[in-house]
Amino acid sequence: MTLKIGSVPLGGRPLVVAAGGDAEVEALAGADGADVIELRADLFDDPGPASVTRALTRLRAGGRPVILTVRHASEGGRAMPDAQRLAIYDAGLAEAHAIDVEVATAEVLAPLVTRARDGGRLVILSAHDHERTPALGTLLGWMARADALGAHVAKVVTTATSLDDVRTLLEATLSAYPRPVATFAMGPLGVGTRVLCGLAGSRLTYGAVGRPTAPGQLGIGELRAWIDRFHPA
Q1: 7 part of a folded domain
Q2: Would 65 be classed as within a structural domain?
């Protein structure tokens, strides 16, 4: 079965995802070069079900599939109670084509994951390390845990501080193939992984339309150009 985010299939070259919060909604809606949009609800000045749902409705009008993410504070998001995060996901599920939930909180939000899958939404379960790139076994363990918790796509994002880190992340991506994963590294040394991991099998890569949502994130136009160069259609 071919996985899709909305009507856009995952396979072949990686999909380019434009990411942003409430300050970037209009830029996201018109993000030339993006295949998919990620709305980071945790980046809203006033995150709540009503404001997030309005933004999702606006983004759907732009014609691109939308991933809804309410990133947990422990992995780079805004601190908020689990009940608030769940309320945002619940309210936005009807307007989103996919959700991204951390592997670490997926068990707590298991009913949400089930509802998303049952409703035909793609489920991305992710793990982030903002300080380092863990050992290969740890990365593969995160991917296996994501699979066990119901992920369609296991997403692993690390921080590269050396070339060994880049090699480890690429090895994890290659080891996972052909399972659907999304991988890249943050930080200056990780910039290239946003393109190179696609050559190893990563299905998604993320770019910015305004303020970056992660260290080392390229602008969406530059990222699109590199993807087109290294991953011809």
Answers
A1: no
A2: yes
Distance of CA 192 to the CA centre of its chain: 17
- Check: CB of residue 157 under 8 Å from CB of residue 184: yes
Would you say residue 232 lies in a domain?
A: no
Active-site residue, from 128, 130, 152, 231: 128
Residue 131: CATH number of its domain: 3.20.20.70
What's the mean pLDDT in 144-163?
97
Q: In whole angstroms, how far apart are CA 129 and each of 3, 105, 168?
A: 26, 15, 14
Q: Which residues contact 114 (CB under 8 A, 6 or more apart)?
A: 150
**Whole domain around residue 165: which residue ranges?**
12-227
Q: Would you give the end-to-end CA distance of the chain in angstroms?
A: 21
- Would you call 128 a catalytic residue per the annotation? yes
**pLDDT score of 19:** 97
Residue 44 maps to a domain: yes
pTM listed for this prediction: 0.96
Check: CB of residue 13 under 8 Å from CB of residue 233.
yes
- Catalytic residue among 72, 97, 152, 155, which? 155
**Predicted confidence (pLDDT) at residue 233 exceeds the cutoff of 80:** no
Map tokens 């992984």 to a residue: 193
Q: With contact defined as beta carbons under 8 Å apart, do 96 and 67 qualify? A: yes
CA 88/CA 53 separation, integer angstroms: 8
Question: β-strand 122-128 against 98-102: which pairing, if any?
Answer: parallel
Total of domains in the chain: 1
